[in-house]
Amino acid sequence: MTAKIINGTEIARQIREELKQEVAELKSRYSLTPGLATVLVGDDPASKVYVGAKEKACSELGMYSERHDIPGNSTEEEVLALVEKLNQDPKIHGILVQMPLPKHINETRILYAINPKKDVDGFHPVSLGKLMIGEPDFIPCTPHGIQQLLIRSGVKVEGAEVVVIGRSNIVGKPIANILLQKKPGANATVTLCHTGTRDIKSHTLRADIIIAAAGKPNTVTADMVREGVVVIDVGVNEIGKTADGKRILVGDVDFEKVKEKASAITPVPGGVGPMTITMLMLNTVKAAKISRGLS
Ligand SMILES: NC(=O)c1ccc[n+]([C@@H]2O[C@H](COP(=O)([O-])OP(=O)(O)OC[C@H]3O[C@@H](n4cnc5c(N)ncnc54)[C@H](OP(=O)(O)O)[C@@H]3O)[C@@H](O)[C@H]2O)c1
Hints:
Strand order of the largest sheet: 1-11-8-7-5-6
Oligomer: single chain
Largest sheet: 6 strands, parallel
Structural class: alpha/beta
Shape: globular
Helix content: 25-40%
Number of strands: 11
Bound molecules: NADP nicotinamide-adenine-dinucleotide phosphate
Number of helices: 10
Order of helices and strands: EHEHEHEHHHEHEHEEEEHEH
Strand content: 15-25%
């Protein structure tokens, strides 16, 4: 069997097209323009690229965006004051503070300061708590993107044995919580593996769906999967540079060998990656609707 490749770029494009229409309708019917504020502290080159991509996505969808780039030596109090100003700003429906923050700033304190109604990253404890009890407002973007990849590729999640590798607060724990809810596109039996798991292969071998989010190349190899499995590879690992200095990226899965056994698999790049910013846009549109009682 050679796997169907799950094309995250194409699925993200479809969702953005839907969002573009929704934004146009919100503007024309309710004079409501969803607005996202990004906060970048310092000048980390990768963070600058991410923030730029988020701004670009807003503009492509007809949304309002505001960028707050502040110096790396800003104090925690200054960042908190900016967050508070954005909490109060009616033009802003979503606030995204780009992580990581400089070491002298307590990330948790900043995260907790964001009004949960504007928490479009979905990392505030209120958002995560609501996700856990099955009443989410904002689902963290990468795991939400993973669920959409599965649903929109026609993968049957209901009743499936899902094995997640990795238990971070931004990927592993939320995707496990999303897929175990008694809801369409979920209702799976979920096993969460991590470095304390005794025998990961004994779990992956019985999985219908494997979600690899360990951040280590070759965490999932062909001997660890059964024929027909669906594999979602979240990992992004740099394994070197090309002669012209471009980063060589691989996922957590031995793609070439695993794709010969899987029924469907995401590539890296072009799988989960393109979904993350798209789901941030979706959350911002949702936040705007919530602000007017439309959601
Ligand atoms: N495409 C995207 O948009 C996107 C978004 C977010 C993250 N990512 C990528 O996804 C990967 C994971 O990100 P993260 O932030 O969740 O990473 P993280 O915070 O470093 O967490 C990694 C998790 O994997 C577990 N783990 C590590 N090695 C393992 C192994 N050999 N076997 C079993 N479990 C193992 C760790 O276990 P312990 O808890 O026991 O240490 C931890 O729970 C990274 O490559 C990251 O770049 C991609």
